[in-house]
Amino acid sequence: MSQLTLVAHYGPKKRSSQAPFMAYVHACQEAMGRSTLGGYFAPYEDAQIHGTLIGLERVTDPRVAAPSTRYNANLWQRRGELRAMDLDCALRLARALPPMTIRFGGFRSVDQVIESRGQSAHARSFGIDWRTGKVVIIGWVHEDGDLSGYAKLWAVRQTFAERCHVHHKYEADSDFFVVIGELDGLEGLDEAALTALQDAGERVAEGIRASLADPRRAVDLSLRVEDLSVVRYANESLDLAGSQAFPVIAPDLDATAF
Q: Cβ distance 105 to 125 under 8 Å?
């Protein structure tokens, strides 16, 4: 069953302003490919790379909701509440998104301005989620290098919840989260082999984080209405074959399209 999500920068990256960010992505992918995890790492295609503004997933359990309903899945999973999302409201908010700039890289281990799930920006800037196999980079909102207002993205996500009943997956989350690839073939490993790979993987991740901490490695990415699309997807990876993108700026786009 397909789902929906509201994302930024999905599809071809043709604008010159996207080039520094994609160079950053490629550097991370190449570092993974050269590492001890290289045989397991499957990088995403460039057009597949995206950052999630907020998920629009609905409850799909037929014991809870009929297929035609749009009860917000995140609210149901977190609080056990059934609230129907207003997707036309979500589109209006997306079209009114205040312009923001996301900073990736340049986060030193001593920098403590940002807190992300109890960790520093350095610790969270690059990582491997061993539960899902996803390899991720994370950036945060800044203004002219000032990161003190990084929580603006969470404020936007809160507005979606308050006005449209569209709830973000995590509470108080200001992360701009980008998956750059996945680890494949882990299911064939026994417990000892997996533990050894995870230990090696953490050393790889720390090495990559250290290289990204150099302020000269920092890159910016815009977050503006023209960057946004609603994507209907069959797979969470938003693979191109199983996904369809609807640019938010399309003037005739409304909830009936979904």
A: yes
